[in-house]
Amino acid sequence: MSTHVPGTTTRSWTPSALDTASAWWLTALDRIERSGAADPAIRLLQRGIRSLPLGEARDLLRGRPLGHPVHPVLVQVPIGCWLSAAVLDIAPAGHRAPTTLMAVGLAGAAPAAVAGWADWADLPPEQARVGLVHAVSNVAAVACYTASLTARLRGHSAKGRLWSLGGLTAVAVSGALGGHVAYRQAVGTHPAH
Which of 37, 50, 118, 144 is least enclosed by beta carbons within 10 angstroms? Predict the structure, then answer.
């Protein structure tokens, strides 16, 4: 719908592809948050993680010395490496640099995951549900990047690049889910949609 201003052409508003995708995404997030299907597993996992005898390491994993969660800081290593590898896959360069970045990204994923699980264990149900999907997306990304690294090390660089693209897609979905969890944690509500 538009308002006519004298001397201008009247245009009617139509939803763009971005509006449609945004509405779909927010609806999907609402459904995940409201679905209690995984709640028994979530409660079991959260109890298990909280019961681990981590002592002061729990505070480090939660980022208390920094005054904020450490997970968002740690995810920069795998995401940065994997995104850089994707750029190098496109640019004319040797095959060694992207392979090295795959390996460093995979090594950096473990500490980021541990810190993420430590944070997740204390989330309320709505955030924990989205957080579980975030974790599944991360597992998919790690699986794709592991397959990519394996293919590259065996000399199958084209196959490695395809697996890398799958991993980057999973990382993008995971990042959007993680951002949603963090936003919900910070303000406890959705942005207007």
Answer: 37
Query: How much is the pTM?
Result: 0.83
Query: What is the secondary structure of 80-95 as a DSSP string?
Result: HHHHHHHHHHHSS--S
pLDDT digits (tens, 9 = 90+) for 109-154: 999 999 999 999 999 999 999 999 999 999 999 999 999 999 999 9
Residue 120, CB half-sphere, CA atoms under 13 Å: how many?
26
- Mention every residue, 6+ apart, whose C-beta is less than 8 A from residue 75: 112, 116, 175, 178
On whether the CB atoms of residues 70 and 62 are closer than 8 A, the answer is yes
pLDDT tens by residue, 19-62 = 999 999 999 999 999 999 999 999 999 999 999 999 999 999 99
Which tokens belong to 108?
């950096």
Contact 41, 53 (CB under 8 A): no
Cα–Cα distance for residue pair 187/174, rounded to 1 Å = 20
Beta strands in the chain (DSSP E): none
Which residue is associated with the tokens 């942005």? 191
